[in-house]
Amino acid sequence: MRVGRIALVGRPNVGKSTLLNQLVGQKLSITSRRAQTTRVQVQGILTMPEVQMIFVDTPGFQQQYGGMLYRSMNRSVTDALGTVDQVVMVVEALRWTPADQAILLQIPAGIRPLLVINKVDRVASSERMIPYLQARQEETRFSAIFPVSALQRSCLDPLVRYLGQHLPEGPLQYEPDQVSDRTERFFVGEFIREQLFRQLGDELPYATAVMIDRYVQEERLIRIEATLLVDNPGQKAILIGQQGSRLKAIGTAARLQIEKFLESKVYLGLWVKVKSGWAEDGTLLKQLGHDF
Ligand SMILES: Nc1nc2c(ncn2[C@@H]2O[C@H](COP(=O)(O)OP(=O)(O)OP(=O)(O)O)[C@@H](O)[C@H]2O)c(=O)[nH]1
């Protein structure tokens, strides 16, 4: 067996979560059009006849906000890189921004990352890719370059083959049918967060934490109760909406996703609570799965 840990790095929104979900074949990490939706490190596991790949989905590297939450996010990028066998850097086709460059510089010097150029489906003519590819090849740090479309699942097979061939030999670390080391409860929180990102304005999802208070298997359904923590009463009002309409829409959409994921009927109760400064509360962040 070849077994190893693979880190996906890249600036926010390049499609790391989408790529991970496609590789592992299940919706593990939430995706949205907005940047910086991944807060904690999620592992996806892909087991094939002779290979087990353990993917570490690192949060998008960002410099825009300060605060404990974001420091923890940036630190987990560097931490993750110290313990992995392969680093995959993801960028968007035809784009190489200062943020991409900063990420490349953050990868420790001894590591030769593999470059995935994602979203090639957006490139109208392949000729436009030639100078872009040449420029990337001149950046001699990459061990290999793979243009792909995570969304359309195209060109992923050569990438998987290459990754498998370059992992160390060793025993299985997870059962073959395991796709993640996270619990179902964790994913339920992620599905709720995904709806916050889809249904709210720009700022609020970042100011909201989801806590699963109850998760009980009953005879005919799974009963889940969750609290959405916000920073101030104004945010609470926005989140609840006119006569509760927004919270209801978030709850309904999240419940449908959760039912699909758990393959069971679900009751989902959502409450909104104001707790100012939650993003600076180390104990709370730990409970939510952030390491310090
Ligand atoms: N056209 C196109 N869009 C893609 C592709 N892969 C991802 N996207 C879109 O890009 C957006 C961002 O994707 P994510 O997977 O959330 O990006 P991420 O890098 O994980 O972002 P963070 O979680 O913020 O770090 C989503 O709207 C995806 O649907 C692709 O191959 N082609």
Overview features:
292 residues, alpha/beta, Rossmann fold, GMP Synthetase, Chain A, domain 3, 2 domains, six-stranded mixed sheet, three-stranded mixed sheet, 9 helices, 9 strands, 35% helix, globular, binds guanosine-5'-triphosphate, GTPase activity, small ribosomal subunit rRNA binding, GTP-bd
Structure, explained:
- The two termini are 33 Å apart.
- This protein folds into two domains: 2-165, P-loop containing nucleotide triphosphate hydrolases (Rossmann fold), CATH 3.40.50.300; 184-287, GMP Synthetase, Chain A, domain 3.
- The model is unreliable at 32-40 and 60-66 (pLDDT under 50).
- It is globular, with a radius of gyration of 20 Å.
- The protein has a six-stranded mixed β-sheet, with helices on both faces. The protein has a three-stranded mixed β-sheet with strand order 7-8-9.
- By secondary structure, it is α/β, with parallel strands linked by helices.
- The chain contains nine helices and nine strands.
- The longest helix has 18 residues, at 245-262.
- It has helices at residues 16-24, 67-82, 98-106, 129-138, 156-165, 184-199, 233-240, 245-262, 282-287, and strands spanning 2-9, 42-48, 51-57, 86-92, 114-118, 145-147, 209-217, 222-230, 266-274.
- The structure holds guanosine-5'-triphosphate (GTP).
- Guanosine-5'-triphosphate is lined by residues 10, 12-18, 31-33, 35-38, 59-60, 118-119, 121-122, 149-151.
